[in-house]
Amino acid sequence: MRFQTNRPLEGGRQRGSTLYMVAASLVAILGLAGLAIDLVALYAGRSEAQRAADAAALAGAHTFVTSGYTVGSLNSSAACSVASTAAASEGVSNKVGGNTLASSQFASTCDFSHNVVGGISQDPLITVTATATMPIFFMRIFGLSSKTVAAKATAEAFSGSGCTTCLKPFFLPNCDPIHTTPANPACPNGGAPGGYWIDPSTKQAANPGDYPSGSRGEPWTLHTVSGPSQWYEIAFDEVPPNCKGGGSQSKTKFEQSVQQCSPATYACGDQLCALNGASFGPNGHSVGCLISYGQDCKSQSVNSTDTISTQSPFTITAGPGNPFTTSGTITQSASLITVPLYDPTCAAGQKPPCSLPPGGGPQMIVGWMELFVQDVKHKGPTDDIDVLVLSVSGCGTGGGGGSTGCSAAGGGSSFLPVRLVQNP
User: Fold this and answer.
1) What is the share, in percent, of the chain residues with pLDDT greater than 70?
2) Is the CB of residue 403 less than 8 Å from the CB of residue 395?
3) Is the bond into 362 cis (omega within 30 degrees of 0)?
């Protein structure tokens, strides 16, 4: 009888121990679940911090170009300061863990030791570290209430291979109409020799820095008839050296090249088939369509929808017809164009000045120029295009002699591109 009486008691004790085991297991299971959830949140926050650092670094590298450092307008200390400010400004627009970061959570360092030419780094780098504090939820039972995540990104404004894509079909002479040092006897300047945009001896910008002492921000009027800034039209549908009588580009092809991008890539030293700038008449139509985003293609004179300040750092403001935004500062615009430069030479029997040799034919690329097209004005037999010079890049900083490895891009943005690179 005693034996039968004790069996239920032993079974009851076993059942009670199971409850203790389940309770202990629940604590472990909840701990593991909390660890998994919090770890996933931390990994997601780390990824968001990386995106914020990437965006900040690219913005900082872009500022190396827009601030004028790459053309000598700023020293390295000032350039790093404005680049760091731009990086933080862009970084705070990215949320991490649903929270907006403060500018103090972005730390920047600059490196100006790469590809130094004339005391200016042609490949300046900026490294941005973004830090964020992520809250901990389930793991609070272990005494953890928050965890700091950090991400680092490095970007550079690089000179590439001295090449570009999305050229507009304007082939401009290497003739600075205002700065006459060094003198260019092939270019007119009121009866006296003009100057160079790109110094042929150094293959660099002849007058770096901001206007009026330098060429950055210099106003220039491009003419389709006689004048020191008369330009060739590029026949993208022909391949040198067999240019057909100086090029046979059609009106339709020319307009497409103005309003769209040429699919080919071109490098320093390449030759392009050229036409005389007065050979075609659709300049006003095509340029007007370009700078008005297709809103005004028929007027005699068309102003750019977007506007630009006339002093460094040359801020571009979106106009009311901009299809992407109706107001505010922008970094890309249809009015930003990239064009090649060639060295004018006097043909046999031609006396200086001779900024545009007769006959067209193939001409060699000696550099690049980034312009902001402010307006186009049709005046009788000519179309005048008023531009602001934003950058001049010679062939001494990149490769040349072929298009292999080209990576720079023009067409609506700076032709000196920025890219993320491996963290040093």
Assistant:
1) 73
2) no
3) no
